Amino acid sequence: MRTDPHSHFDDQQPRATRWHLRLLVDFDQRIVGGEATLLFAPPAAGVLDLDTKGLAIHRVWVSVTGNEIPWELGPEEPILGRRLRLHLPEATHGISIAYETSPEAAGLQWLEPAQTEGGRHPFLFSQCQAIHARTLVPCQDSAAARVAYDAEVVVPEGLRAVMSAGPMGDEPGPIPGTRVFHFRMPQPIPSYLLALAVGDLECRDLSPRSRVWAEPAVVARAAWEFADVEAMIGTAEQLFGPYDWERYDLLVLPRSFPYGGMENPRMTFLTPTLLAGDRSLVDVVAHELAHSWTGNLVTNATAEHFWLNEGFTVWAERRILRALHGEEACALAWAVGQKDLEESLERFRDQPGLTLLRTRLDGIDPDDAFSSIPYEKGARLVAALERAVGEPAFHGFLQAYMRRFRFTSITTEAFCAFTEEQFPGLLARVDAEAWLHQPGMPAGAPVFGSARLDRILELASGFGRGVRPGPGEAEAWGVTELLVYLQNLPGNLGPQACAELDGRLGLSGRGNCEILAAWLVLALGSGHDAVLGRVREMLTGVGRMKYLRPLYGALGRDAGTRALAREIFAQAAAGYHALARRAVQGVLDGYPDS
Ligand code: BES
Ligand code: ZN
Predict the structure, then answer these.
(1) Of 142, 152, 369, 502, which residue is most buried, by most CB within 10 angstroms?
(2) Residue 384: pLDDT over 90
(3) Angle between the 479-488 and 513-525 helix axes, to the nearest 10 degrees?
């Protein structure tokens, strides 16, 4: 039976338990030449359906005998790609597929040297979540099907490959001028956690089990920014139990990386926009680290249960933050999330189905369903469960949850059955039905307050009445206080008040992308067009979708700013990741005059 609306994976068919990948990275053609071996334990036979997208399949054979086997590629389906159907002979231990990726593979971004920090070497990185692993490897591309893998990756000499796996050494490659890197991921992972990056990379140790990789020009800044990672790992271990993946390394990507972070196991991928120079944005690292448990150990079975990954992880991220920086910092983080949540609820006003936690995504691309709802509504449900049973009991629950489901992929229904077993009646008590299956936010959702937060919200909401921070007050705020203030100011301040605010707080000059993006959105909405140059700079310099979406959205204000948005996009699109290009195109298509 097919169990995942986004995959041809069929749970009655043979299941690959291990991959052996041989990948040849060709920067000139922007192609990865691949040989993927899928191993079956126990040996398998019969029909096997794999997911592919944009892959050219050359040959399929039984690994040990070399005998070719029949295969057929189905028609191109808009979200799924093409089904690759194989017919396995009796007692097949493994099959091998020779193939090539497409230069347009959505899971890969190929960067010219000019798009890197160093400017001298090309760069390649993957982003497989949610359903892009199939653009890299023919596979059962459902989170329900877990695999271990080995890989050897051949790259041009002078470049280094890293993967979501343990490094197993490198040596001169099979072709002159190449080097081959070996990897091994012994634990079974969902396909969306397959990850590869190739570039001019250096590393700095952060602790005995953690180091950061980045281009030489940024690696020192990265090591400084993420110096506290070991303390985070320790705190996360107290929450969830021992860190089970040996190493926790970080990779800082070039600016076009479309997300803040991606929890690729053993090697979190991060946007360089986190390098704010003040360690103020490391909550993203806490988040990706927490996925080592919630997401990578216990995994959502399909994108319809995405809240199990992200809701738990946001909750855990804020727990780590509380342990390291205290209650006030934690309350501020919940307040930032509250704003994101409200924006997402507003965005999906006409698609209430996407505001449920347990979603139905038949015919819906997971990238289009992406929003803060599984994150923030999900985290609030976790907090509601915790408040209902108390912190110590909930701590025990989490440990039991990890023990029961580690290295498995589960549905919301499995989660509910387990919760009912551990705490009979708890789901009814928090009205889980409303959280999971009804749109919007349930009445009685947990609220997070603190004296400092209340003061900032009061200042923000009073702005129109002339209320202002006292002398030196706003100047003393940290990044998150300022962010909460900006997010909660009235949406249209008018140009004059903006000029006043900018004069006082130097907002346009900020290097911190969270502050800068919030400020530019506010200024655009307030008709303060003095910021247009800075908006262009940010839209051409940063590829993180979290900033692109609202900025292009704010440029939808009037005919003039819409023309400017189209002009900037025409100039910047080539540098954006395919996912970002698609997301921005969606925003532009929503403009009233499109
Ligand atoms: N796993 C996500 C990123 C993701 C989700 C990629 C869905 C593709 C499809 C990652 O853990 C994440 O949530 N990143 C956030 C960070 C944050 C909430 C602290 C981001 O990128 O902004
Ligand atoms: Zn996440």
Answers:
(1) 142
(2) yes
(3) 20
Q: Is 288 a catalytic residue?
A: yes
Angle at 247 between CA 241 and CA 248, to 5 degrees: 80
Whether ligand 1 lies within 6 angstroms of the CB of 6 is answered as: no
Residue 120, pLDDT > 90, answer yes
**CB atoms inside a 10 Å sphere around CB 3:** 16
Strands 160-163, 196-199: pairing kind: antiparallel
What value does the mean pLDDT take over residues 10-17? 98
pLDDT at 99 over 90: yes
Question: Do 23 and 153 meet the contact criterion of CB atoms below 8 Å apart?
Answer: yes
594 pLDDT tier (thresholds 50, 70, 90): confident
pLDDT at 229 over 90: yes
Is there an atom of ligand 1 within 6 Å of 263 CB? yes
Nearest partner of 446 among 371, 394, 518, judged by Cα? 394
Q: How many CA atoms lie within 13 A of 118 on its CB side?
A: 18
Cβ atoms of 250 and 267 within 8 Å: the answer is yes
Atom of ligand 1 nearest to the CA of 284: 19
Residue with tokens 């250096």: 202
**Are the beta carbons of 197 and 135 closer than 8 angstroms?**
no
- CB-based contact 489:521 (threshold 8 Å): no
Q: How far is the CA of 411 from the centre of ligand 2 (A)?
A: 17
pLDDT, position 267: 98
291 lines ligand 1 (CB under 6 A): yes
Q: How many angstroms is it from 309 CA to the middle of ligand 1?
A: 10
149 is catalytic: no
**Distance linking the first and last C-alpha atoms of the chain:** 42
Q: pTM here?
A: 0.98
**Rounded Cα distance, 430 and 433, in Å:** 9
At residue 71, what are phi and psi to the nearest 5 degrees? -150, 155
pLDDT tens-digit series, residues 260-288 = 999 999 999 999 999 999 999 999 999 99
Whether residue 445 has pLDDT greater than 90: yes
Structure tokens at 459: 């200042």
Query: 291: CA distance to ligand 1 center in Å?
Result: 10
| Residue 184: C-alpha distances to residues 152, 194, 537 (Å) | 9, 11, 41
Structure-derived torsion over alpha carbons of residues 337, 338, 341, 343, reported in degrees to the nearest 10: -110
